[in-house]
Protein backbone atom coordinates (compact mmCIF):
# COMPACT_ATOMS: atom_id res chain seq x y z
CA UNK A 1 0.00 0.00 0.00
CA UNK A 2 1.24 3.46 -0.92
CA UNK A 3 1.05 6.13 1.57
CA UNK A 4 -0.63 8.55 -0.77
CA UNK A 5 -0.56 11.40 1.71
CA UNK A 6 3.18 11.13 1.96
CA UNK A 7 3.52 10.97 -1.81
CA UNK A 8 1.48 14.13 -2.31
CA UNK A 9 3.45 15.86 0.41
CA UNK A 10 6.63 15.04 -1.46
CA UNK A 11 5.17 16.26 -4.75
CA UNK A 12 3.94 19.49 -3.17
CA UNK A 13 7.31 20.21 -1.58
CA UNK A 14 9.06 19.59 -4.89
CA UNK A 15 6.80 21.90 -6.89
CA UNK A 16 6.84 24.58 -4.19
CA UNK A 17 10.63 24.46 -4.07
CA UNK A 18 11.05 24.57 -7.86
CA UNK A 19 8.54 27.41 -8.36
CA UNK A 20 9.85 29.56 -5.52
CA UNK A 21 13.40 28.97 -6.67
CA UNK A 22 12.61 29.83 -10.30
CA UNK A 23 10.86 33.03 -9.29
CA UNK A 24 13.72 34.08 -7.03
CA UNK A 25 16.22 33.13 -9.72
CA UNK A 26 14.56 35.54 -12.17
CA UNK A 27 14.66 38.32 -9.59
CA UNK A 28 18.29 37.68 -8.67
CA UNK A 29 19.57 36.42 -12.02
CA UNK A 30 18.20 39.16 -14.32
CA UNK A 31 20.18 42.07 -12.83
CA UNK A 32 23.32 39.90 -12.75
CA UNK A 33 22.78 38.91 -16.39
CA UNK A 34 22.16 42.56 -17.34
CA UNK A 35 25.31 43.68 -15.59
CA UNK A 36 27.37 40.88 -17.16
CA UNK A 37 26.00 41.76 -20.61
CA UNK A 38 26.45 45.55 -20.36
CA UNK A 39 29.31 46.26 -17.99
CA UNK A 40 32.72 47.14 -19.30
CA UNK A 41 34.38 46.33 -15.98
CA UNK A 42 37.50 44.23 -16.40
CA UNK A 43 36.70 41.96 -13.47
CA UNK A 44 33.23 41.06 -14.72
CA UNK A 45 34.47 37.73 -16.11
CA UNK A 46 35.61 36.83 -12.61
CA UNK A 47 32.05 37.41 -11.43
CA UNK A 48 30.78 35.36 -14.37
CA UNK A 49 33.10 32.51 -13.37
CA UNK A 50 31.87 32.68 -9.78
CA UNK A 51 28.25 32.49 -10.96
CA UNK A 52 29.11 29.52 -13.20
CA UNK A 53 30.95 27.64 -10.46
CA UNK A 54 28.02 25.33 -9.52
CA UNK A 55 28.14 23.83 -13.03
CA UNK A 56 31.55 22.24 -12.38
CA UNK A 57 31.50 21.95 -8.59
CA UNK A 58 30.40 18.59 -7.11
CA UNK A 59 26.99 19.28 -5.46
CA UNK A 60 28.30 17.83 -2.23
CA UNK A 61 31.01 20.49 -2.07
CA UNK A 62 28.47 23.24 -2.53
CA UNK A 63 26.21 21.46 -0.03
CA UNK A 64 29.01 21.25 2.51
CA UNK A 65 29.72 24.99 2.40
CA UNK A 66 26.03 25.77 2.44
CA UNK A 67 25.64 23.61 5.51
CA UNK A 68 28.28 25.70 7.27
CA UNK A 69 26.73 28.96 6.08
CA UNK A 70 23.16 28.07 6.94
CA UNK A 71 23.93 26.21 10.14
CA UNK A 72 23.62 27.58 13.69
CA UNK A 73 27.13 29.07 13.70
CA UNK A 74 26.95 30.63 10.22
CA UNK A 75 25.11 33.72 8.94
CA UNK A 76 22.07 31.52 8.27
CA UNK A 77 21.92 30.75 11.99
CA UNK A 78 22.00 34.45 12.89
CA UNK A 79 19.16 35.17 10.51
CA UNK A 80 17.20 32.22 11.89
CA UNK A 81 17.77 33.53 15.39
CA UNK A 82 15.83 36.68 14.48
CA UNK A 83 12.64 34.68 14.43
CA UNK A 84 13.55 32.23 17.14
CA UNK A 85 14.82 29.33 15.06
CA UNK A 86 18.20 27.73 15.47
CA UNK A 87 19.35 27.22 11.92
CA UNK A 88 18.35 27.55 8.28
CA UNK A 89 19.75 24.15 7.41
CA UNK A 90 17.16 21.39 7.18
CA UNK A 91 14.38 23.89 6.52
CA UNK A 92 12.45 24.71 3.35
CA UNK A 93 13.92 28.23 3.32
CA UNK A 94 17.41 26.81 3.52
CA UNK A 95 16.63 24.52 0.62
CA UNK A 96 15.42 27.50 -1.45
CA UNK A 97 18.64 29.39 -0.78
CA UNK A 98 20.71 26.38 -1.74
CA UNK A 99 18.70 25.76 -4.91
CA UNK A 100 18.98 29.39 -6.00
CA UNK A 101 22.77 29.26 -5.73
CA UNK A 102 22.92 25.85 -7.36
CA UNK A 103 20.74 26.76 -10.37
CA UNK A 104 21.93 30.37 -10.79
CA UNK A 105 24.21 29.71 -13.79
CA UNK A 106 21.41 28.00 -15.69
CA UNK A 107 19.31 31.16 -15.44
CA UNK A 108 21.98 33.84 -15.77
CA UNK A 109 23.63 32.39 -18.88
CA UNK A 110 20.64 32.29 -21.28
CA UNK A 111 19.41 35.71 -20.16
CA UNK A 112 22.87 37.22 -20.50
CA UNK A 113 23.26 35.71 -23.98
CA UNK A 114 19.98 37.18 -25.21
CA UNK A 115 20.76 40.59 -23.67
CA UNK A 116 24.05 40.52 -25.55
CA UNK A 117 22.45 39.31 -28.76
CA UNK A 118 20.49 42.49 -29.53
CA UNK A 119 23.41 44.78 -28.76
CA UNK A 120 23.44 48.46 -27.89
CA UNK A 121 21.28 49.77 -30.76
CA UNK A 122 17.72 49.10 -29.53
CA UNK A 123 18.56 50.81 -26.25
CA UNK A 124 19.98 53.83 -28.08
CA UNK A 125 16.86 53.97 -30.22
CA UNK A 126 14.74 53.83 -27.06
CA UNK A 127 16.73 56.71 -25.58
CA UNK A 128 16.16 58.87 -28.68
CA UNK A 129 12.47 58.02 -28.34
CA UNK A 130 12.48 59.57 -24.83
CA UNK A 131 12.56 56.32 -22.87
CA UNK A 132 14.61 56.47 -19.68
CA UNK A 133 16.81 53.50 -18.65
CA UNK A 134 14.06 51.70 -16.65
CA UNK A 135 11.47 52.30 -19.32
CA UNK A 136 13.83 50.99 -22.00
CA UNK A 137 14.67 47.94 -19.89
CA UNK A 138 11.06 46.90 -19.39
CA UNK A 139 9.66 47.84 -22.78
CA UNK A 140 12.56 47.04 -25.08
CA UNK A 141 15.21 44.85 -23.45
CA UNK A 142 12.90 42.38 -21.69
CA UNK A 143 10.59 41.76 -24.69
CA UNK A 144 13.61 41.32 -26.98
CA UNK A 145 15.19 38.86 -24.55
CA UNK A 146 12.00 36.81 -24.20
CA UNK A 147 13.45 33.56 -25.62
CA UNK A 148 16.31 33.81 -23.13
CA UNK A 149 13.90 34.25 -20.22
CA UNK A 150 11.89 31.25 -21.36
CA UNK A 151 14.96 29.03 -21.57
CA UNK A 152 16.09 30.33 -18.19
CA UNK A 153 12.75 29.40 -16.59
CA UNK A 154 12.75 25.88 -18.02
CA UNK A 155 16.36 25.21 -17.06
CA UNK A 156 16.05 26.77 -13.61
CA UNK A 157 12.86 24.86 -12.82
CA UNK A 158 14.03 21.51 -14.19
CA UNK A 159 17.44 21.79 -12.60
CA UNK A 160 15.87 22.47 -9.20
CA UNK A 161 13.48 19.53 -9.51
CA UNK A 162 16.40 17.27 -10.37
CA UNK A 163 18.92 18.38 -7.75
CA UNK A 164 19.98 15.70 -5.32
CA UNK A 165 23.37 16.20 -3.75
CA UNK A 166 22.74 19.68 -2.37
CA UNK A 167 19.34 18.63 -0.98
CA UNK A 168 20.84 15.65 0.72
CA UNK A 169 23.52 17.79 2.37
CA UNK A 170 21.37 20.67 3.62
CA UNK A 171 17.77 19.57 3.34
CA UNK A 172 17.69 16.22 4.98
CA UNK A 173 14.61 14.25 4.33
CA UNK A 174 11.83 15.73 6.43
CA UNK A 175 8.46 14.59 5.05
CA UNK A 176 6.14 17.43 4.11
CA UNK A 177 8.94 19.98 4.37
CA UNK A 178 12.26 19.14 2.77
CA UNK A 179 11.56 15.73 1.36
CA UNK A 180 11.54 16.21 -2.42
CA UNK A 181 11.11 13.76 -5.31
CA UNK A 182 14.72 13.04 -6.13
CA UNK A 183 15.51 12.16 -2.52
CA UNK A 184 12.29 10.18 -2.16
CA UNK A 185 13.15 8.01 -5.16
CA UNK A 186 16.56 7.33 -3.67
CA UNK A 187 14.90 6.32 -0.40
CA UNK A 188 12.45 3.98 -2.05
CA UNK A 189 15.21 2.27 -3.99
CA UNK A 190 17.35 1.95 -0.86
CA UNK A 191 14.47 0.29 0.97
CA UNK A 192 13.62 -1.87 -2.08
CA UNK A 193 10.20 -0.27 -2.59
CA UNK A 194 10.40 -0.65 -6.34
CA UNK A 195 6.76 0.10 -7.15
CA UNK A 196 6.94 3.49 -5.45
CA UNK A 197 10.26 4.24 -7.10
CA UNK A 198 8.80 3.32 -10.48
CA UNK A 199 5.77 5.49 -10.00
CA UNK A 200 7.77 8.55 -9.00
CA UNK A 201 10.41 8.07 -11.68
CA UNK A 202 7.86 7.62 -14.43
CA UNK A 203 5.90 10.54 -13.07
CA UNK A 204 9.02 12.71 -13.20
CA UNK A 205 9.68 11.66 -16.77
CA UNK A 206 6.19 12.47 -17.87
CA UNK A 207 6.11 15.76 -16.00
CA UNK A 208 9.47 16.98 -17.29
CA UNK A 209 8.62 16.00 -20.82
CA UNK A 210 5.26 17.80 -20.68
CA UNK A 211 6.75 20.99 -19.28
CA UNK A 212 9.48 21.19 -21.88
CA UNK A 213 7.14 20.31 -24.72
CA UNK A 214 4.56 22.85 -23.61
CA UNK A 215 7.16 25.62 -23.39
CA UNK A 216 8.61 24.77 -26.77
CA UNK A 217 5.18 24.81 -28.38
CA UNK A 218 4.41 28.10 -26.66
CA UNK A 219 7.62 29.68 -27.91
CA UNK A 220 6.98 28.40 -31.41
CA UNK A 221 3.50 29.86 -31.40
CA UNK A 222 4.80 33.22 -30.25
CA UNK A 223 7.33 33.18 -33.07
CA UNK A 224 4.66 32.23 -35.60
CA UNK A 225 2.45 35.04 -34.37
CA UNK A 226 5.33 37.47 -34.77
CA UNK A 227 6.00 36.59 -38.37
CA UNK B 1 22.26 87.61 -28.67
CA UNK B 2 19.10 87.46 -30.72
CA UNK B 3 20.86 85.54 -33.46
CA UNK B 4 22.18 82.99 -30.94
CA UNK B 5 18.62 81.92 -30.22
CA UNK B 6 18.33 80.63 -33.75
CA UNK B 7 21.54 78.66 -34.00
CA UNK B 8 23.05 75.47 -32.74
CA UNK B 9 26.60 75.76 -31.45
CA UNK B 10 28.63 72.66 -30.75
CA UNK B 11 32.16 72.11 -29.61
CA UNK B 12 33.50 68.64 -28.92
CA UNK B 13 36.96 67.28 -28.50
CA UNK B 14 38.33 64.02 -27.25
CA UNK B 15 39.66 60.67 -28.24
CA UNK B 16 37.89 57.40 -28.86
CA UNK B 17 40.35 54.60 -29.45
CA UNK B 18 42.83 55.97 -31.97
CA UNK B 19 40.36 58.50 -33.39
CA UNK B 20 40.61 62.08 -32.29
CA UNK B 21 37.72 64.47 -32.69
CA UNK B 22 38.20 68.19 -32.33
CA UNK B 23 35.25 69.94 -33.89
CA UNK B 24 33.54 73.23 -33.33
CA UNK B 25 30.76 74.71 -35.44
CA UNK B 26 27.68 76.89 -35.41
CA UNK B 27 24.74 76.24 -37.72
CA UNK B 28 21.35 77.89 -38.20
CA UNK B 29 18.32 76.21 -36.62
CA UNK B 30 16.53 76.07 -39.94
CA UNK B 31 16.79 74.19 -43.19
CA UNK B 32 19.05 71.24 -43.76
CA UNK B 33 22.65 71.20 -42.57
CA UNK B 34 24.81 68.49 -44.08
CA UNK B 35 27.68 67.06 -42.03
CA UNK B 36 29.75 66.12 -45.02
CA UNK B 37 33.08 64.37 -45.38
CA UNK B 38 34.79 61.12 -46.31
CA UNK B 39 34.31 57.93 -44.31
CA UNK B 40 36.17 58.03 -41.04
CA UNK B 41 35.96 61.82 -40.77
CA UNK B 42 33.96 61.61 -37.56
CA UNK B 43 30.56 62.65 -38.93
CA UNK B 44 28.57 59.96 -37.17
CA UNK B 45 30.46 60.43 -33.92
CA UNK B 46 29.69 64.15 -34.02
CA UNK B 47 26.01 63.47 -34.69
CA UNK B 48 25.94 61.02 -31.80
CA UNK B 49 27.45 63.74 -29.61
CA UNK B 50 24.56 66.05 -30.52
CA UNK B 51 22.10 63.30 -29.60
CA UNK B 52 23.85 62.55 -26.31
CA UNK B 53 24.73 59.01 -27.41
CA UNK B 54 28.51 59.39 -27.49
CA UNK B 55 30.79 59.22 -24.47
CA UNK B 56 32.57 62.43 -25.51
CA UNK B 57 31.99 65.59 -23.52
CA UNK B 58 31.90 69.09 -24.85
CA UNK B 59 29.63 72.05 -25.16
CA UNK B 60 26.30 72.17 -26.95
CA UNK B 61 23.93 75.09 -27.10
CA UNK B 62 20.67 74.80 -29.00
CA UNK B 63 18.86 78.10 -29.35
CA UNK B 64 19.23 79.66 -25.92
CA UNK B 65 19.27 76.34 -24.10
CA UNK B 66 22.49 74.79 -22.86
CA UNK B 67 22.23 71.03 -23.38
CA UNK B 68 25.75 70.18 -22.50
CA UNK B 69 28.67 71.92 -20.90
CA UNK B 70 31.56 69.87 -19.63
CA UNK B 71 33.04 72.77 -17.64
CA UNK B 72 29.91 73.38 -15.57
CA UNK B 73 28.83 69.74 -15.49
CA UNK B 74 25.64 70.22 -17.50
CA UNK B 75 24.70 67.11 -19.42
CA UNK B 76 21.22 66.33 -20.65
CA UNK B 77 20.86 62.59 -21.19
CA UNK B 78 19.76 61.45 -24.63
CA UNK B 79 16.19 60.73 -23.60
CA UNK B 80 15.71 64.30 -22.39
CA UNK B 81 16.85 66.00 -25.60
CA UNK B 82 14.07 67.06 -27.97
CA UNK B 83 15.67 65.45 -30.98
CA UNK B 84 14.55 62.94 -33.56
CA UNK B 85 17.22 60.46 -34.63
CA UNK B 86 17.21 58.36 -37.79
CA UNK B 87 19.91 55.69 -37.76
CA UNK B 88 21.74 54.26 -40.76
CA UNK B 89 19.77 51.03 -40.44
CA UNK B 90 16.09 51.62 -39.70
CA UNK B 91 16.48 49.87 -36.31
CA UNK B 92 12.74 49.40 -35.80
CA UNK B 93 11.73 47.45 -32.70
CA UNK B 94 11.11 43.93 -34.03
CA UNK B 95 8.63 43.09 -31.28
CA UNK B 96 6.32 45.99 -32.10
CA UNK B 97 4.08 46.60 -35.12
CA UNK B 98 4.61 49.65 -37.30
CA UNK B 99 1.94 51.41 -35.25
CA UNK B 100 3.66 50.35 -32.01
CA UNK B 101 6.96 51.69 -33.32
CA UNK B 102 5.42 55.01 -34.37
CA UNK B 103 3.61 55.49 -31.06
CA UNK B 104 6.53 54.45 -28.82
CA UNK B 105 8.23 57.83 -28.92
CA UNK B 106 5.03 59.81 -29.54
CA UNK B 107 3.41 58.75 -26.24
CA UNK B 108 6.53 59.41 -24.25
CA UNK B 109 7.24 62.74 -25.93
CA UNK B 110 3.75 64.05 -25.19
CA UNK B 111 4.42 63.77 -21.46
CA UNK B 112 6.84 66.67 -21.76
CA UNK B 113 6.17 68.34 -25.12
CA UNK B 114 3.26 70.04 -26.80
CA UNK B 115 1.85 68.16 -29.76
CA UNK B 116 2.77 69.88 -32.99
CA UNK B 117 3.18 66.84 -35.25
CA UNK B 118 0.19 64.51 -35.30
CA UNK B 119 0.40 60.79 -36.12
CA UNK B 120 -2.26 61.05 -38.84
CA UNK B 121 -0.33 63.77 -40.64
CA UNK B 122 2.94 61.85 -40.52
CA UNK B 123 1.26 58.63 -41.68
CA UNK B 124 -0.27 60.46 -44.61
CA UNK B 125 2.87 62.43 -45.47
CA UNK B 126 5.00 59.27 -45.52
CA UNK B 127 2.36 57.08 -47.13
CA UNK B 128 2.49 54.35 -44.50
CA UNK B 129 -1.20 53.96 -43.66
CA UNK B 130 -1.27 50.52 -45.28
CA UNK B 131 1.62 49.28 -43.13
CA UNK B 132 0.39 50.12 -39.64
CA UNK B 133 -0.47 46.60 -38.49
CA UNK B 134 2.55 44.90 -39.99
CA UNK B 135 5.65 43.81 -38.16
CA UNK B 136 8.95 45.41 -39.26
CA UNK B 137 10.32 42.16 -40.70
CA UNK B 138 7.49 42.24 -43.25
CA UNK B 139 8.56 45.60 -44.69
CA UNK B 140 10.95 46.46 -47.50
CA UNK B 141 14.09 48.45 -46.73
CA UNK B 142 12.57 51.69 -47.97
CA UNK B 143 9.35 51.14 -46.02
CA UNK B 144 11.31 50.49 -42.85
CA UNK B 145 13.29 53.69 -43.22
CA UNK B 146 10.06 55.61 -43.84
CA UNK B 147 8.62 54.22 -40.60
CA UNK B 148 11.87 55.07 -38.79
CA UNK B 149 11.61 58.63 -40.13
CA UNK B 150 7.97 58.85 -39.01
CA UNK B 151 8.82 57.45 -35.60
CA UNK B 152 11.52 60.10 -35.14
CA UNK B 153 9.18 62.89 -36.30
CA UNK B 154 6.48 61.88 -33.83
CA UNK B 155 8.80 62.56 -30.89
CA UNK B 156 7.99 66.24 -31.65
CA UNK B 157 11.66 67.05 -32.21
CA UNK B 158 13.15 70.51 -32.38
CA UNK B 159 15.91 69.09 -34.59
CA UNK B 160 15.98 65.98 -36.70
CA UNK B 161 19.34 64.18 -36.78
CA UNK B 162 19.89 61.77 -39.68
CA UNK B 163 22.88 59.44 -39.92
CA UNK B 164 23.34 58.46 -43.58
CA UNK B 165 19.71 57.32 -43.76
CA UNK B 166 20.12 56.21 -47.38
CA UNK B 167 23.31 54.20 -47.18
CA UNK B 168 21.65 50.87 -46.41
CA UNK B 169 19.15 51.22 -49.27
CA UNK B 170 19.16 50.36 -52.96
CA UNK B 171 18.93 53.11 -55.57
CA UNK B 172 15.13 53.01 -55.96
CA UNK B 173 14.57 53.19 -52.20
CA UNK B 174 17.13 56.00 -51.94
CA UNK B 175 15.22 58.13 -54.45
CA UNK B 176 12.00 57.39 -52.61
CA UNK B 177 13.37 58.37 -49.18
CA UNK B 178 15.02 61.51 -50.60
CA UNK B 179 11.67 62.66 -51.94
CA UNK B 180 10.06 62.01 -48.56
CA UNK B 181 12.84 63.91 -46.79
CA UNK B 182 12.18 66.88 -49.07
CA UNK B 183 8.48 66.56 -48.32
CA UNK B 184 9.15 66.50 -44.58
CA UNK B 185 11.42 69.52 -44.88
CA UNK B 186 8.90 71.39 -47.03
CA UNK B 187 5.79 70.60 -44.99
CA UNK B 188 7.02 70.42 -41.40
CA UNK B 189 10.04 72.70 -41.70
CA UNK B 190 11.99 70.98 -38.91
CA UNK B 191 15.70 71.81 -38.97
CA UNK B 192 17.73 68.77 -39.95
CA UNK B 193 21.34 67.77 -39.45
CA UNK B 194 22.13 65.26 -42.13
CA UNK B 195 25.26 63.10 -42.15
CA UNK B 196 26.40 61.96 -45.58
CA UNK B 197 29.45 61.32 -47.71
CA UNK B 198 27.53 61.66 -50.99
CA UNK B 199 27.83 65.05 -52.67
CA UNK B 200 24.63 64.51 -54.68
CA UNK B 201 22.60 64.23 -51.48
CA UNK B 202 24.23 67.41 -50.23
CA UNK B 203 23.45 69.32 -53.43
CA UNK B 204 19.91 68.08 -53.38
CA UNK B 205 18.97 68.65 -49.74
CA UNK B 206 21.38 70.90 -47.91
CA UNK B 207 21.20 74.61 -47.29
CA UNK B 208 24.13 74.67 -44.97
CA UNK B 209 27.29 72.63 -44.89
CA UNK B 210 29.80 71.53 -42.27
CA UNK B 211 32.79 69.87 -43.88
CA UNK B 212 34.64 67.36 -41.75
CA UNK B 213 38.08 65.94 -42.38
CA UNK B 214 39.87 63.63 -39.95
CA UNK B 215 37.85 64.77 -36.98
CA UNK B 216 38.20 68.47 -37.70
CA UNK B 217 35.91 71.04 -39.29
CA UNK B 218 37.54 71.91 -42.62
CA UNK B 219 34.89 74.45 -43.60
CA UNK B 220 31.43 75.56 -42.55
CA UNK B 221 28.94 77.89 -44.19
CA UNK B 222 26.01 78.13 -46.54
CA UNK B 223 25.94 75.52 -49.29
CA UNK B 224 26.12 78.06 -52.10
CA UNK B 225 29.03 79.97 -50.64
CA UNK B 226 31.01 76.81 -49.86
CA UNK B 227 30.40 75.30 -53.28
CA UNK B 228 31.37 78.53 -54.98
CA UNK B 229 34.54 79.12 -52.97
CA UNK B 230 37.24 78.38 -55.58
CA UNK B 231 39.67 77.44 -52.82
CA UNK B 232 37.18 75.21 -51.03
CA UNK B 233 37.74 71.48 -50.71
CA UNK B 234 34.75 70.66 -52.93
CA UNK B 235 35.70 73.16 -55.62
CA UNK B 236 39.16 71.59 -55.79
CA UNK B 237 37.73 68.17 -56.51
CA UNK B 238 36.32 66.53 -59.62
CA UNK B 239 32.74 67.34 -58.62
CA UNK B 240 33.18 71.11 -58.48
CA UNK B 241 29.93 72.84 -59.22
CA UNK B 242 27.34 75.20 -57.83
CA UNK B 243 23.61 75.08 -57.28
CA UNK B 244 21.10 77.78 -58.18
CA UNK B 245 17.58 78.24 -56.90
CA UNK B 246 15.27 78.76 -59.87
CA UNK B 247 11.59 78.87 -60.81
CA UNK B 248 9.80 77.60 -63.90
CA UNK B 249 8.87 80.79 -65.76
CA UNK B 250 7.63 79.58 -69.13
CA UNK B 251 7.57 76.77 -71.57
CA UNK B 252 8.26 77.24 -75.24
CA UNK B 253 6.49 74.58 -77.28
CA UNK B 254 8.17 75.59 -80.55
CA UNK B 255 11.53 74.14 -79.49
CA UNK B 256 10.33 72.12 -76.52
CA UNK B 257 12.34 74.15 -74.05
CA UNK B 258 11.63 75.26 -70.48
CA UNK B 259 12.62 78.71 -69.37
CA UNK B 260 13.76 79.06 -65.75
CA UNK B 261 14.17 82.25 -63.80
CA UNK B 262 16.98 82.60 -61.32
CA UNK B 263 18.94 85.35 -59.65
CA UNK B 264 21.66 84.69 -62.23
CA UNK B 265 19.28 85.38 -65.09
CA UNK B 266 17.21 83.29 -67.45
CA UNK B 267 18.21 79.66 -67.96
CA UNK B 268 16.92 77.46 -70.75
CA UNK B 269 16.61 73.74 -70.22
CA UNK B 270 15.55 71.45 -73.06
CA UNK B 271 12.37 69.47 -72.59
CA UNK B 272 9.35 70.30 -70.51
CA UNK B 273 10.00 70.14 -66.79
CA UNK B 274 7.78 70.96 -63.83
CA UNK B 275 4.72 73.12 -63.47
CA UNK B 276 4.74 76.84 -64.10
CA UNK B 277 5.89 78.62 -60.96
CA UNK B 278 7.43 75.51 -59.40
CA UNK B 279 10.68 76.12 -57.54
CA UNK B 280 13.66 73.95 -58.22
CA UNK B 281 17.35 73.57 -57.62
CA UNK B 282 19.63 73.48 -60.62
CA UNK B 283 23.18 72.25 -60.58
CA UNK B 284 25.81 73.78 -62.80
CA UNK B 285 29.07 71.84 -62.94
CA UNK B 286 32.18 74.00 -63.04
CA UNK B 287 33.36 71.95 -66.05
CA UNK B 288 30.29 73.07 -68.00
CA UNK B 289 30.92 76.80 -67.61
CA UNK B 290 33.23 78.58 -70.02
CA UNK B 291 34.08 82.26 -70.31
CA UNK B 292 34.05 84.74 -73.20
CA UNK B 293 34.90 88.43 -73.24
CA UNK B 294 32.53 89.29 -76.07
CA UNK B 295 29.07 87.93 -76.19
CA UNK B 296 29.26 85.12 -78.74
CA UNK B 297 26.92 86.00 -81.62
CA UNK B 298 26.43 82.72 -83.41
CA UNK B 299 26.83 79.96 -80.87
CA UNK B 300 24.95 76.78 -80.08
CA UNK B 301 25.15 77.48 -76.39
CA UNK B 302 21.76 78.69 -75.15
CA UNK B 303 22.68 80.07 -71.79
CA UNK B 304 25.03 83.02 -71.91
CA UNK B 305 24.88 85.28 -68.86
CA UNK B 306 26.83 88.44 -67.99
CA UNK B 307 29.12 87.91 -65.01
CA UNK B 308 31.98 89.45 -63.07
CA UNK B 309 35.08 87.56 -62.04
CA UNK B 310 35.40 87.81 -58.27
CA UNK B 311 38.01 85.20 -57.40
CA UNK B 312 40.63 82.95 -58.99
CA UNK B 313 42.44 79.87 -57.79
CA UNK B 314 45.14 77.96 -59.66
CA UNK B 315 44.85 74.21 -59.20
CA UNK B 316 47.15 71.33 -60.04
CA UNK B 317 47.46 69.99 -63.58
CA UNK B 318 46.98 73.26 -65.42
CA UNK B 319 43.50 74.06 -64.21
CA UNK B 320 42.00 77.18 -62.72
CA UNK B 321 38.85 77.73 -60.68
CA UNK B 322 37.11 81.02 -61.45
CA UNK B 323 34.40 82.35 -59.16
CA UNK B 324 31.81 84.46 -60.98
CA UNK B 325 29.20 86.80 -59.65
CA UNK B 326 25.94 87.03 -61.58
CA UNK B 327 22.74 89.00 -61.26
CA UNK B 328 22.16 92.42 -59.86
CA UNK B 329 22.86 93.49 -56.28
CA UNK B 330 21.65 92.68 -53.72
CA UNK B 331 20.43 89.37 -55.20
CA UNK B 332 23.70 88.24 -56.69
CA UNK B 333 24.64 84.58 -56.93
CA UNK B 334 27.91 82.84 -57.56
CA UNK B 335 28.90 80.28 -60.15
CA UNK B 336 32.13 78.40 -60.49
CA UNK B 337 33.92 77.91 -63.81
CA UNK B 338 36.77 75.48 -64.37
CA UNK B 339 39.10 76.68 -67.13
CA UNK B 340 42.62 75.79 -68.19
CA UNK B 341 45.64 77.68 -66.93
CA UNK B 342 46.60 78.31 -70.55
CA UNK B 343 43.29 80.09 -71.30
CA UNK B 344 43.65 82.08 -68.12
CA UNK B 345 47.14 83.22 -69.11
CA UNK B 346 46.57 83.89 -72.81
CA UNK B 347 43.32 85.76 -72.23
CA UNK B 348 44.70 87.56 -69.18
CA UNK B 349 41.85 86.53 -66.89
CA UNK B 350 41.83 88.70 -63.78
CA UNK B 351 39.62 89.47 -60.84
CA UNK B 352 37.22 92.34 -61.57
CA UNK B 353 36.80 91.67 -65.28
CA UNK B 354 33.34 91.58 -66.83
CA UNK B 355 32.79 88.42 -68.87
CA UNK B 356 30.06 86.28 -70.34
CA UNK B 357 29.51 82.93 -68.64
CA UNK B 358 28.52 80.27 -71.15
CA UNK B 359 26.66 77.50 -69.43
CA UNK B 360 26.85 74.43 -71.58
CA UNK B 361 24.57 72.33 -69.40
CA UNK B 362 22.53 72.53 -66.26
CA UNK B 363 20.69 69.76 -64.54
CA UNK B 364 17.75 69.66 -62.23
CA UNK B 365 18.80 68.56 -58.79
CA UNK B 366 15.56 68.73 -56.87
CA UNK B 367 12.22 70.38 -56.68
CA UNK B 368 11.98 72.83 -53.86
CA UNK B 369 8.91 71.55 -52.11
CA UNK B 370 6.34 73.88 -50.75
CA UNK B 371 3.05 73.01 -49.10
CA UNK B 372 1.57 71.77 -52.33
CA UNK B 373 4.73 70.75 -54.04
CA UNK B 374 5.62 67.64 -52.13
CA UNK B 375 3.37 65.27 -54.01
CA UNK B 376 4.97 66.62 -57.11
CA UNK B 377 8.39 65.83 -55.71
CA UNK B 378 7.34 62.28 -55.02
CA UNK B 379 6.14 61.57 -58.50
CA UNK B 380 8.63 63.60 -60.46
CA UNK B 381 11.80 62.03 -61.65
CA UNK B 382 13.82 64.72 -60.05
CA UNK B 383 16.64 62.41 -59.10
CA UNK B 384 16.74 60.52 -62.30
CA UNK B 385 16.96 63.88 -64.00
CA UNK B 386 20.37 64.08 -62.55
CA UNK B 387 21.49 60.57 -63.18
CA UNK B 388 20.01 59.83 -66.55
CA UNK B 389 21.09 63.26 -67.69
CA UNK B 390 18.18 65.47 -68.50
CA UNK B 391 21.29 67.42 -68.60
CA UNK B 392 21.49 68.33 -72.21
CA UNK B 393 24.31 70.04 -73.95
CA UNK B 394 23.73 73.17 -76.02
> CATH first level of chain A: which class?
Mainly Alpha
Q: Please tell me the overall pLDDT of chain A.
A: 89
Largest sheet of chain B: 6 strands, mixed
- Quaternary status of these chains? heterodimer
Mean pLDDT of chain B: 85
What structural category arises from helix and sheet content of chain A?
mainly alpha
CATH fold-type name of chain A: MetI-like fold
Compute the separation of the termini of chain A in Å. 53 Å
Number of strands of chain A: 0
**Biggest sheet character of chain A:** none
Beta fraction of the residues of chain B?
35-45%
Number of helices of chain A: 11
CATH architecture of chain A: Orthogonal Bundle
Shape by Cα distribution of chain A: globular
Description:
The complex is a heterodimer of chains A (227) and B (394). With 227 residues, chain A is an all-alpha fold. Chain A has a single domain (2-40, 55-181), classed as Orthogonal Bundle (MetI-like fold). In chain A, 79% of the residues lie in helices and 0% in strands. The longest helix of chain A is centred in the N-terminal third of the chain and has 35 residues, at 4-38. Chain A is globular and about 65 Å long. Chain A starts with a helix and ends with a helix. The model of chain A has no long low-confidence stretch (mean pLDDT 89). In chain B, helix 2 packs parallel to helix 4 (141-153) and helix 5 packs antiparallel against helix 9 (373-379). Residues 369-394 of chain B have low confidence and may be disordered. Chain B has helices spanning 43-51, 98-110, 119-125, 141-153, 171-188, 199-205, 223-228, 341-347, 373-379, 382-387, and strands at 7-16, 19-28, 32-36, 58-62, 65-69, 74-75, 83-86, 159-163, 192-196, 208-213, 216-222, 241-252, 257-262, 265-270, 279-285, 289-292, 303-314, 319-326, 333-340, 354-359, 363-367. Chain B has 394 residues and is an alpha+beta fold. Helices cover 24% and strands 35% of the residues of chain B. In chain B, the strands form 4 sheets. Chain B has a 6-stranded mixed beta sheet with strand order 7-8-9-3-10-11, sandwiched between helices. A 5-stranded antiparallel beta sheet of chain B has the order 2-1-4-5-6, with helices on one face. Chain B has a 5-stranded antiparallel beta sheet with strand order 14-13-12-15-21. Chain A binds chain B through residues 121-122, 124-132, 135, 139-140, 143-144, 146, 226-227, and chain B through 51-53, 77-80, 83-85, 87, 89, 91, 93-95, 104-105, 108-109, 111-112, 135, 137-138, 151-152, 155.
